[in-house]
Amino acid sequence: MDLAGRVLYRDGLVLVIDKPAGVPVHAGPGGGPNLEQGFDSLRFGWKRPPALAHRLDRETSGCLVLGRHPKALRRLGRLFASGRVGKTYWAWTAGAPREEAGLIEAPLLKRSTRAGGWSMQVDGEGKQAATRYRVLERRKDGIARIECRPLTGRTHQIRAHLAHLGCPVVGDTRYGGPRASRTLLHARAVSLPLHEGREPVAAEAPLPADIEAFLAGAGRQV
Questions:
Q1: Helices and strands counted in the chain (H then E)
Q2: Is 57 annotated in the active site?
Q3: Which of 66, 125, 155, 222 is the most buried (most CB within 10 A)?
Q4: What CATH number should be reported for the domain holding residue 164?
Q5: Are strands 185-192 and 61-67 parallel, antiparallel or unpaired?
Q6: Cα dihedral 184/172/159/75 (nearest 10)
Q7: 126: domain range?
Q8: Which residue in 11, 40, 57, 210 is the catalytic one?
Q9: How far apart are the C-alpha atoms of 132 and 81, rounded to whole Å?
Q10: Considering only CA atoms, which of 162, 160, 181 is closest in space to residue 95?
């Protein structure tokens, strides 16, 4: 995999790459290819490869942040932990919320069943989770494009929150979405306030070809 050709931003601290869908960011219990296996090609003159500053789900595409050395990773870790990283996702959903924009505040708790495996469910005993959303597009075929900005970083937060809102992500069968080639969730942009008194580092990932192809075949846009 040519990860060097997927770099969206690079400086002495960080790399932002355009993660392809369908590849996990690190090795799982079942083995198989993963993104970390290609990090050696992202040294760009440094003695060691970069490392993950956060995670994206296997099927999610788009902006993935890497730290180029331990000091950078510690700084990035503090930014992510304090909620100072600006993250923008695009989701294509089955249906759309009534309101054009809003804030979803719904605590999430991990639950497991023998039949369906695990998922994150809205539950008063769960951890606080908040997501801002804005409807960018409503299509005649019932698919909507929704911009989501998570204010917290819970597992599957956007997927669970959109399902709770009544508009699950297309392809996300775990949370009630209709079947598709993959979950249509894209990490569109990221903003990193790395330096005090300076503009945040920003990167934006282009729309993946598989989502473009899906939308072209799903019906004419409004």
A1: 3, 12
A2: yes
A3: 66
A4: 3.30.2350.10
A5: parallel
A6: -60
A7: 4-218
A8: 57
A9: 18
A10: 162
